[in-house]
Amino acid sequence: MKTTRNTTAKTAVLEVFENSKTALSHTEIQKQLNDVCDRVTIYRILDRLVNEDIIHKISNLDGTVKYAKCNHSHQRVHIHNHAHFSCENCHEITCLENVKPSYIMPHNYKVNEINFTLSGLCPKCLNSNI
Amino acid sequence: MKTTRNTTAKTAVLEVFENSKTALSHTEIQKQLNDVCDRVTIYRILDRLVNEDIIHKISNLDGTVKYAKCNHSHQRVHIHNHAHFSCENCHEITCLENVKPSYIMPHNYKVNEINFTLSGLCPKCLNSNI
DNA sequence: AAAAATAACGCAACAATGTTGCGATTAAAA
DNA sequence: TTTTAATCGCAACATTGTTGCGTTATTTTT
Question: I need a labelling partner for A108 at 20 to 30 A (CA). Which of A10, A99, B6, B88 fits?
Answer without folding.
Answer: A99
